[in-house]
Amino acid sequence: MHPNLKYGVKAPKVYFTDTGLAAYLLRWSNAEILEAGAMSSSFLETWAVMEIYKSFSNCGQIPPLGYYRDFNSREVELVLNVDGSIHPLAIRKSSSPVKETKKFDILRPVAEGERALKLGAGGVICFANDLLPIDARNWYIPAGLL
Hints:
- The protein has 146 residues and is of the alpha/beta class.
- The protein has one domain (19-145).
- It is 22% helix and 23% strand.
- It contains 3 helices and 7 strands; from the N terminus they run H-H-H-E-E-E-E-E-E-E.
- It has helices spanning 19-25, 31-36, 40-58; strands at 65-69, 75-82, 85-91, 118-119, 122-126, 132-133, 138-142.
- Strands 1, 2, 3, 4, 5, 6 and 7 form a 7-stranded mixed β-sheet that branches.
- Strand 2 and strand 3 (85-91) form a beta hairpin.
């Protein structure tokens, strides 16, 4: 964890590499139950993180993945650390989540001090139809592109 992020929670997150196996273990028998269930957003997050993980692994790279959560329950679901820049990503089930990128501001302290990292472009992985800009630094990223 970066020294400028003083209130981060260091508990690890666990993801299933196979969401089908996770659904089977929960005895969810079809896709409709999975889509409408109480854990549907968790399954989407697991699927998205694992797709990004596999993209790096299949290229022979160690996936530079992390996340940030603080004691105030503010969370950035996925943080990519690539070439000295961090890229925050949120993962949402809607097609146009609003105000999701505001929580990326909790990572601003990383860009300060002697061990500063560049805060790069971020995005919201969601069910948008196209890759769309949110603002100058962030994008809506269709889940289907993963």
